[in-house]
Amino acid sequence: MYPGMLSEKRTNALPRGEIARGKSAVSRLFSQGGRLKGGFLLLIYSASRPVEQAPRIPVRVLFTVGKKLVPRAVDRNRIKRLMREAYRLEKNILTRALAFDAGKGDHQVMLAFLYRARADAIPSLERFRAEIRHMLKNLLSNRLPQTREGDRIE
Fold first, then answer.
1. Phi-psi region at 79: left, alpha or beta (left = phi > 0; alpha = psi -120 to 50)
2. Angle formed by the axes of helices 125-142 and 73-90, nearest 10°
3. What kind of architecture, by CATH, is found in domain 16-142?
4. 40 phi and psi, to 5 degrees?
5. Quick check: 132 and 113 in contact, CB under 8 A?
6. All structural domains of the chain with their residue ranges
7. CA 55 to chain centre
8. Is the torsion defined by CA of 70, 75, 78, 82 positive or negative?
9. What pTM does this model have?
10. Strand partners, 35
11. What Pfam families is this protein classified in?
12. Can you list the alpha helix ranges (DSSP code H) found in the chain?
């Protein structure tokens, strides 16, 4: 196989199951979720009972870029790729802190990263990583709801 071929197994990719899907779940996240503002990203988050399709996935994530802010599809796709890669590299902050065990985990965290800046200068991967790292640490420090036992989901 040649490097980069589609049939090659991608071990470092963000798993499909971690991508938030479903109109009802996404609309519930946008209507009821908490918000964290960053420099050029907005994070919408909520912790809830796991959905039936993915009960063992502790975190589901969504990436979006508005067409009004970034009119060219090429730029929107590049920004989403950068956000996905930055999240993939920084998600261990969240997954380690959640210490999710499939047998006892009773919450699922849903995240939506929204790009809020213009397409004039697309931030670098390092800037995306720094922004996402800061947002995830802020989310863990004081934003996630309490569990049934009264302990923070950490």
1. alpha
2. 50
3. 2-Layer Sandwich (3.30)
4. -130, 10
5. yes
6. 16-142
7. 17
8. negative
9. 0.78
10. 44
11. Ribonuclease_P
12. 23-32, 73-90, 92-98, 125-142
Find the Cα–Cα–Cα–Cα dihedral 125, 127, 129, 134, rounded to 10°: -170
The residues near 135 (Cβ < 8 Å, ≥ 6 apart) are 36, 38, 41, 43
**With contact defined as beta carbons under 8 Å apart, do 115 and 70 qualify?**
yes
Alpha carbons 72 and 80: distance in angstroms, whole number: 13
Contact predicate 16/107, CB 8 Å: no
What would the two tokens of residue 56 be? Answer: 């063992």
Question: What pLDDT digit, counting tens, does each position of 78-130 carry?
Answer: 999 999 999 999 988 888 877 644 445 567 889 999 999 987 889 999 999 99
Q: Give the single-character DSSP code of 111.
A: E
Residues in a beta bridge with 121:
none
Q: The tokens 């499939």 sit on which residue?
A: 102
Is 129 within 8 Å of 90 (Cβ atoms)? yes
Report d(CA 94, CA 2) in Å as an integer.
34
